[in-house]
Amino acid sequence: MDLNKVFLIGRIATDIEMKSTPSGQSVSTFSLATSRKWKDKSGQLQEDTQFHRIVLWARLAEIASQFLSKGSLVMIEGRIQNRNWEDKNGIKRYMTEIVGENLQMGPKGQGGEAPKKQEKQDDDIPVIEDGDEIDIKDIPF
Fold this sequence. Notes:
By secondary structure, the protein is mainly β. The chain is built from two helices and six strands. It has one domain (6-123): CATH 2.40.50.140. A hairpin with a 5-residue loop joins strand 5 (73-86) and strand 6. The radius of gyration is 18 Å and the shape is globular.
């Protein structure tokens, strides 16, 4: 049995770009930032942020471009897709994308916008280190 399934929760890092294919199908693309925090051996807090190219099709693309914007918190459920092509200079190019099949929008701030990221917000999310036993009440959702 094979499985290609991805769940990402992060903030939209770029403006959502909405286009239509020649057949009229809607497609939107954007970058999603996900961060991981941990304490290293010396006790210093470390952070690693990864950026993922997200592709949404049809009605999902329209919903995302209408209701989401840069900074919005979103959960994307989808699959990994690798593409390759040859550019105009004959160089082989590669791209890994997440093709979204479902999305869930995060909380809205005032005026329908995503809440502004605040330093206090990070304090509310517990840091669970590798090897620590996870207590269900420590999970922020």
